[in-house]
Protein backbone atom coordinates (compact mmCIF):
# COMPACT_ATOMS: atom_id res chain seq x y z
CA UNK A 1 0.00 0.00 0.00
CA UNK A 2 2.86 2.35 0.80
CA UNK A 3 4.40 1.56 -2.54
CA UNK A 4 1.10 2.41 -4.37
CA UNK A 5 0.85 5.73 -2.59
CA UNK A 6 4.43 6.56 -3.42
CA UNK A 7 3.90 5.71 -7.12
CA UNK A 8 0.67 7.69 -7.28
CA UNK A 9 2.27 10.72 -5.72
CA UNK A 10 4.93 10.80 -8.43
CA UNK A 11 2.28 11.30 -11.19
CA UNK A 12 2.23 14.94 -12.28
CA UNK A 13 -1.17 16.57 -12.34
CA UNK A 14 -2.00 18.80 -15.35
CA UNK A 15 -1.46 22.44 -14.66
CA UNK A 16 -4.41 24.63 -15.77
CA UNK A 17 -3.07 27.93 -17.00
CA UNK A 18 -5.46 30.86 -16.56
CA UNK A 19 -4.04 32.57 -19.62
CA UNK A 20 -4.75 29.46 -21.75
CA UNK A 21 -8.35 29.40 -20.54
CA UNK A 22 -8.78 33.08 -21.46
CA UNK A 23 -7.47 32.54 -24.98
CA UNK A 24 -9.78 29.56 -25.48
CA UNK A 25 -12.81 31.57 -24.40
CA UNK A 26 -11.85 34.40 -26.74
CA UNK A 27 -11.50 31.93 -29.60
CA UNK A 28 -14.93 30.49 -28.92
CA UNK A 29 -16.41 33.99 -28.99
CA UNK A 30 -14.54 35.12 -32.11
CA UNK A 31 -15.41 32.08 -34.25
CA UNK A 32 -19.16 32.81 -34.56
CA UNK A 33 -18.44 36.52 -35.06
CA UNK A 34 -16.04 35.75 -37.90
CA UNK A 35 -18.51 33.29 -39.43
CA UNK A 36 -21.27 35.92 -39.22
CA UNK A 37 -19.04 38.54 -40.82
CA UNK A 38 -18.32 36.15 -43.66
CA UNK A 39 -21.96 35.13 -44.12
CA UNK A 40 -23.32 38.67 -44.50
CA UNK A 41 -21.09 39.83 -47.38
CA UNK A 42 -21.36 36.42 -49.01
CA UNK A 43 -25.16 36.65 -48.84
CA UNK A 44 -25.07 40.11 -50.38
CA UNK A 45 -22.84 38.83 -53.17
CA UNK A 46 -25.21 35.93 -53.81
CA UNK A 47 -28.16 38.32 -53.82
CA UNK A 48 -26.47 40.60 -56.33
CA UNK A 49 -25.50 37.62 -58.50
CA UNK A 50 -29.06 36.26 -58.32
CA UNK A 51 -30.61 39.49 -59.58
CA UNK A 52 -27.87 40.87 -61.82
CA UNK A 53 -26.25 37.83 -63.42
CA UNK A 54 -29.32 35.61 -63.24
CA UNK A 55 -31.28 38.29 -65.19
CA UNK A 56 -33.93 38.23 -62.46
CA UNK A 57 -33.87 42.01 -62.12
CA UNK A 58 -34.40 42.40 -65.87
CA UNK A 59 -37.28 39.91 -65.85
CA UNK A 60 -38.99 41.56 -62.89
CA UNK A 61 -38.49 45.05 -64.33
CA UNK A 62 -39.70 44.02 -67.80
CA UNK A 63 -42.81 42.32 -66.43
CA UNK A 64 -43.66 45.28 -64.20
CA UNK A 65 -43.25 47.81 -67.00
CA UNK A 66 -44.94 45.84 -69.78
CA UNK A 67 -48.08 45.09 -67.84
CA UNK A 68 -48.54 48.79 -67.09
CA UNK A 69 -48.31 49.69 -70.79
CA UNK A 70 -50.99 47.07 -71.53
CA UNK A 71 -53.42 47.63 -68.65
CA UNK A 72 -53.03 51.30 -67.70
CA UNK A 73 -54.45 53.42 -70.56
CA UNK A 74 -52.35 56.31 -71.82
CA UNK A 75 -49.31 55.73 -69.62
CA UNK A 76 -45.56 55.48 -70.25
CA UNK A 77 -42.35 54.90 -68.29
CA UNK A 78 -38.87 56.40 -68.48
CA UNK A 79 -35.87 54.04 -68.37
CA UNK A 80 -33.50 56.51 -66.70
CA UNK A 81 -35.88 56.86 -63.78
CA UNK A 82 -35.86 53.18 -62.77
CA UNK A 83 -34.14 52.92 -59.38
CA UNK A 84 -32.93 49.54 -58.14
CA UNK A 85 -31.50 48.81 -54.70
CA UNK A 86 -30.35 45.40 -53.48
CA UNK A 87 -30.52 44.23 -49.88
CA UNK A 88 -30.27 40.81 -48.27
CA UNK A 89 -32.12 38.40 -50.63
CA UNK A 90 -34.32 41.25 -51.85
CA UNK A 91 -34.60 44.08 -54.36
CA UNK A 92 -36.40 47.43 -54.31
CA UNK A 93 -37.62 48.78 -57.63
CA UNK A 94 -38.95 52.33 -57.93
CA UNK A 95 -40.13 54.26 -60.97
CA UNK A 96 -42.46 57.02 -62.16
CA UNK A 97 -45.38 56.65 -64.54
CA UNK A 98 -46.37 59.37 -67.02
CA UNK A 99 -49.54 60.32 -68.89
CA UNK A 100 -49.93 62.44 -72.02
CA UNK A 101 -52.44 65.26 -71.63
CA UNK A 102 -52.46 67.55 -74.62
CA UNK A 103 -48.96 67.85 -75.99
CA UNK A 104 -46.99 67.10 -72.82
CA UNK A 105 -46.17 64.15 -70.54
CA UNK A 106 -47.00 64.56 -66.85
CA UNK A 107 -45.87 62.38 -63.91
CA UNK A 108 -48.96 60.73 -62.49
CA UNK A 109 -47.83 57.88 -60.23
CA UNK A 110 -44.84 56.69 -58.26
CA UNK A 111 -44.39 52.93 -57.83
CA UNK A 112 -42.25 51.42 -55.06
CA UNK A 113 -41.99 47.62 -55.32
CA UNK A 114 -40.21 45.36 -52.83
CA UNK A 115 -39.23 41.87 -54.00
CA UNK A 116 -37.91 39.01 -51.89
CA UNK A 117 -36.24 36.81 -54.47
CA UNK A 118 -38.99 36.45 -57.14
CA UNK A 119 -41.93 37.38 -54.95
CA UNK A 120 -43.48 40.84 -54.81
CA UNK A 121 -44.11 41.26 -51.08
CA UNK A 122 -44.93 44.97 -50.91
CA UNK A 123 -46.24 47.58 -53.34
CA UNK A 124 -46.75 51.26 -52.66
CA UNK A 125 -48.31 53.52 -55.29
CA UNK A 126 -48.52 57.29 -54.91
CA UNK A 127 -50.92 58.96 -57.35
CA UNK A 128 -51.02 62.55 -58.63
CA UNK A 129 -54.20 62.01 -60.65
CA UNK A 130 -57.19 64.27 -60.16
CA UNK A 131 -59.63 61.78 -61.72
CA UNK A 132 -58.61 58.26 -60.74
CA UNK A 133 -59.79 55.25 -62.80
CA UNK A 134 -61.27 52.31 -60.88
CA UNK A 135 -58.55 50.44 -59.01
CA UNK A 136 -60.31 47.09 -59.28
CA UNK A 137 -62.67 47.33 -62.28
CA UNK A 138 -65.92 45.39 -62.14
CA UNK A 139 -68.42 44.51 -64.85
CA UNK A 140 -70.15 47.89 -64.57
CA UNK A 141 -67.56 50.49 -63.51
CA UNK A 142 -65.36 50.39 -66.60
CA UNK A 143 -64.24 53.67 -68.14
CA UNK A 144 -64.12 51.97 -71.55
CA UNK A 145 -67.32 50.07 -72.35
CA UNK A 146 -67.91 47.40 -74.99
CA UNK A 147 -70.98 48.14 -77.21
CA UNK A 148 -72.72 44.96 -76.02
CA UNK A 149 -72.70 46.15 -72.42
CA UNK A 150 -75.50 48.12 -70.80
CA UNK A 151 -75.19 51.55 -69.28
CA UNK A 152 -71.97 52.17 -67.33
CA UNK A 153 -71.86 53.54 -63.80
CA UNK A 154 -70.72 56.96 -65.02
CA UNK A 155 -73.16 59.37 -66.68
CA UNK A 156 -71.85 60.18 -70.14
CA UNK A 157 -74.23 63.14 -70.52
CA UNK A 158 -72.87 64.65 -67.32
CA UNK A 159 -69.30 64.15 -68.56
CA UNK A 160 -70.06 66.12 -71.74
CA UNK A 161 -71.52 68.91 -69.60
CA UNK A 162 -68.38 69.07 -67.48
CA UNK A 163 -66.27 69.21 -70.63
CA UNK A 164 -68.41 72.03 -72.03
CA UNK A 165 -67.86 74.06 -68.86
CA UNK A 166 -64.07 73.95 -69.08
CA UNK A 167 -62.18 77.00 -70.41
CA UNK A 168 -61.22 76.87 -74.08
CA UNK A 169 -57.58 77.36 -73.01
CA UNK A 170 -57.35 73.80 -71.67
CA UNK A 171 -56.33 70.43 -73.03
CA UNK A 172 -58.08 67.27 -71.88
CA UNK A 173 -57.85 63.51 -71.80
CA UNK A 174 -61.03 61.57 -72.64
CA UNK A 175 -62.04 57.89 -72.63
CA UNK A 176 -64.25 57.11 -75.65
CA UNK A 177 -66.41 53.99 -75.91
CA UNK A 178 -67.53 53.17 -79.44
CA UNK A 179 -70.87 51.91 -80.75
CA UNK A 180 -69.23 49.03 -82.62
CA UNK A 181 -65.89 47.31 -83.16
CA UNK A 182 -63.44 49.14 -85.43
CA UNK A 183 -59.93 48.94 -86.77
CA UNK A 184 -57.61 51.38 -85.01
CA UNK A 185 -56.56 52.95 -88.31
CA UNK A 186 -60.23 53.77 -89.04
CA UNK A 187 -60.70 55.30 -85.60
CA UNK A 188 -57.73 57.60 -86.13
CA UNK A 189 -59.08 58.80 -89.47
CA UNK A 190 -62.51 59.52 -87.91
CA UNK A 191 -61.10 61.57 -85.02
CA UNK A 192 -59.15 64.47 -86.55
CA UNK A 193 -57.59 67.29 -84.55
CA UNK A 194 -56.72 65.14 -81.52
CA UNK A 195 -54.26 62.40 -80.59
CA UNK A 196 -55.54 58.84 -80.23
CA UNK A 197 -53.09 57.68 -77.58
CA UNK A 198 -54.34 54.23 -76.46
CA UNK A 199 -56.75 51.64 -77.88
CA UNK A 200 -58.61 48.93 -75.93
CA UNK A 201 -58.53 45.65 -77.86
CA UNK A 202 -61.44 43.22 -78.04
CA UNK A 203 -60.38 39.80 -76.72
CA UNK A 204 -63.71 37.97 -76.68
CA UNK A 205 -64.30 38.70 -72.99
CA UNK A 206 -65.41 42.34 -73.04
CA UNK A 207 -69.08 41.72 -73.97
CA UNK A 208 -69.70 40.96 -70.30
CA UNK A 209 -66.16 41.58 -68.95
CA UNK A 210 -66.06 37.91 -67.93
CA UNK A 211 -63.59 35.17 -68.83
CA UNK A 212 -64.70 31.68 -69.80
CA UNK A 213 -64.35 30.73 -66.12
CA UNK A 214 -66.67 33.56 -65.07
CA UNK A 215 -63.94 35.79 -63.64
CA UNK A 216 -64.20 39.56 -64.09
CA UNK A 217 -61.50 40.82 -66.49
CA UNK A 218 -60.19 44.29 -67.24
CA UNK A 219 -59.47 46.16 -70.48
CA UNK A 220 -56.13 45.57 -72.14
CA UNK A 221 -54.71 47.47 -75.09
CA UNK A 222 -51.71 49.29 -76.48
CA UNK A 223 -50.37 52.81 -77.20
CA UNK A 224 -51.39 54.02 -80.64
CA UNK A 225 -49.06 56.99 -81.16
CA UNK A 226 -45.44 56.46 -82.28
CA UNK A 227 -43.29 56.22 -79.17
CA UNK A 228 -39.68 57.44 -79.31
CA UNK A 229 -39.05 56.90 -75.60
CA UNK A 230 -35.91 54.77 -75.34
CA UNK A 231 -37.40 52.48 -72.70
CA UNK A 232 -40.72 51.90 -74.51
CA UNK A 233 -41.31 48.41 -75.95
CA UNK A 234 -43.07 50.20 -78.82
CA UNK A 235 -40.00 52.21 -79.79
CA UNK A 236 -39.38 51.78 -83.54
CA UNK A 237 -42.15 49.15 -83.66
CA UNK A 238 -43.24 48.41 -87.23
CA UNK A 239 -46.61 47.11 -85.95
CA UNK A 240 -47.98 48.12 -82.57
CA UNK A 241 -50.53 45.32 -82.86
CA UNK A 242 -47.87 42.63 -83.21
CA UNK A 243 -45.73 44.21 -80.47
CA UNK A 244 -48.81 44.21 -78.22
CA UNK A 245 -49.43 40.52 -78.89
CA UNK A 246 -45.79 39.63 -78.27
CA UNK A 247 -45.82 41.54 -74.98
CA UNK A 248 -48.85 39.54 -73.83
CA UNK A 249 -46.91 36.36 -74.56
CA UNK A 250 -43.82 37.70 -72.79
CA UNK A 251 -45.64 38.35 -69.52
CA UNK A 252 -47.82 35.23 -69.63
CA UNK A 253 -45.27 33.06 -67.74
CA UNK A 254 -45.24 35.76 -65.03
CA UNK A 255 -48.98 36.47 -65.06
CA UNK A 256 -49.34 36.26 -61.28
CA UNK A 257 -46.62 38.87 -60.78
CA UNK A 258 -48.07 41.05 -63.56
CA UNK A 259 -51.48 41.03 -61.88
CA UNK A 260 -49.90 42.01 -58.56
CA UNK A 261 -48.12 45.00 -60.13
CA UNK A 262 -51.15 46.20 -62.10
CA UNK A 263 -54.39 47.49 -60.62
CA UNK A 264 -56.17 44.86 -62.72
CA UNK A 265 -56.17 41.57 -60.88
CA UNK A 266 -57.38 39.15 -63.54
CA UNK A 267 -55.67 39.14 -66.94
CA UNK A 268 -56.66 35.68 -68.33
CA UNK A 269 -53.84 35.92 -70.87
CA UNK A 270 -53.98 32.42 -72.34
CA UNK A 271 -57.64 32.78 -73.31
CA UNK A 272 -57.24 36.32 -74.64
CA UNK A 273 -54.05 35.63 -76.62
CA UNK A 274 -55.75 32.70 -78.36
CA UNK A 275 -58.71 34.90 -79.31
CA UNK A 276 -56.55 37.69 -80.74
CA UNK A 277 -54.47 35.23 -82.77
CA UNK A 278 -57.64 33.84 -84.32
CA UNK A 279 -59.68 37.03 -84.74
CA UNK A 280 -57.22 39.90 -85.07
CA UNK A 281 -57.16 43.36 -83.51
CA UNK A 282 -60.44 45.24 -83.15
CA UNK A 283 -61.00 48.12 -80.75
CA UNK A 284 -64.16 49.01 -78.85
CA UNK A 285 -62.77 52.09 -77.09
CA UNK A 286 -59.83 54.47 -77.03
CA UNK A 287 -58.19 57.19 -74.97
CA UNK A 288 -57.70 60.51 -76.74
CA UNK A 289 -56.19 63.86 -75.81
CA UNK A 290 -56.24 67.32 -77.35
CA UNK A 291 -57.73 70.80 -77.08
CA UNK A 292 -61.00 71.03 -75.20
CA UNK A 293 -62.80 72.47 -78.24
CA UNK A 294 -61.64 69.66 -80.53
CA UNK A 295 -62.75 66.96 -78.09
CA UNK A 296 -66.09 68.70 -77.49
CA UNK A 297 -66.69 68.74 -81.26
CA UNK A 298 -66.80 64.91 -81.17
CA UNK A 299 -70.00 64.86 -79.12
CA UNK A 300 -72.23 64.20 -82.14
CA UNK A 301 -69.89 61.66 -83.74
CA UNK A 302 -71.71 58.52 -84.86
CA UNK A 303 -68.64 56.58 -83.73
CA UNK A 304 -68.95 57.44 -80.02
CA UNK A 305 -71.40 55.88 -77.56
CA UNK A 306 -69.96 57.04 -74.22
CA UNK A 307 -67.35 59.54 -73.03
CA UNK A 308 -65.56 59.67 -69.69
CA UNK A 309 -63.45 62.75 -68.98
CA UNK A 310 -59.91 62.13 -67.72
CA UNK A 311 -57.20 64.62 -66.76
CA UNK A 312 -57.35 68.33 -67.60
CA UNK A 313 -54.37 70.68 -68.00
CA UNK A 314 -53.70 74.25 -69.06
CA UNK A 315 -53.06 74.88 -72.74
CA UNK A 316 -49.90 73.20 -74.05
CA UNK A 317 -50.99 72.32 -77.59
CA UNK A 318 -48.58 73.35 -80.33
CA UNK A 319 -49.85 71.29 -83.27
UniProtKB/TrEMBL annotation:
Record carries keyword Ribosomal protein: no
Keyword tags: Membrane, Transmembrane, Transmembrane helix
Bilayer-spanning residue ranges: 28-53
Domain (Sigma factor regulator N-terminal) ranges: 29-106
Pfam families for this protein: Sigma_reg_C, Sigma_reg_N
Residue span(s) of domain Sigma factor regulator C-terminal: 163-311
Highest taxon in the source lineage: Bacteria
Name listed for the protein in its UniProt record: Putative anti-sigma-M factor yhdL
Gene name tied to this protein: yhdL
